[in-house]
């Protein structure tokens, strides 16, 4: 990986961590942190799958260590980042990166979170318990990410790393 790509990755991690401090939306059972999901979509479009997954994982770990995220930040961000990045890689369509983020986080990660929460957090909940919060957060973030990535492609094409 180039220094340039690592710098963009570090910048996206910093924005996601800072965004989780300042932007949260109550969604009933939990709080939505849409900046993480926006960063996942932006990373998917600008960087590709592996760097985007690394950004999501580092962001989740930092959020857990700083108290701005729970252990659910790991599946909630990494699965969505992977789905967004692969959806964009194989389609080349920004909106599909957003759909990948919403599907990955809002559906897959929310279902994975149930046994994950049982194992790592000692919490036993029903299968669809996390879905409303994960879905809402990822939908808001995905829309925001598509808008920002589209704007970046028009105003700052020099930062683009992938197609």
From TrEMBL:
<keyword id="KW-0812">Transmembrane</keyword>
<dbReference type="Pfam" id="PF09512">
    <property type="entry name" value="ThiW"/>
</dbReference>
<feature type="transmembrane region" description="Helical">
    <location>
        <begin position="6"/>
        <end position="29"/>
    </location>
</feature>
<feature type="transmembrane region" description="Helical">
    <location>
        <begin position="95"/>
        <end position="114"/>
    </location>
</feature>
<protein>
    <recommendedName>
        <fullName>Energy coupling factor transporter S component ThiW</fullName>
    </recommendedName>
</protein>
<feature type="transmembrane region" description="Helical">
    <location>
        <begin position="126"/>
        <end position="149"/>
    </location>
</feature>
<feature type="transmembrane region" description="Helical">
    <location>
        <begin position="41"/>
        <end position="65"/>
    </location>
</feature>
<keyword id="KW-0472">Membrane</keyword>
<dbReference type="InterPro" id="IPR012652">
    <property type="entry name" value="ThiW"/>
</dbReference>
<feature type="transmembrane region" description="Helical">
    <location>
        <begin position="71"/>
        <end position="88"/>
    </location>
</feature>
<keyword id="KW-1133">Transmembrane helix</keyword>
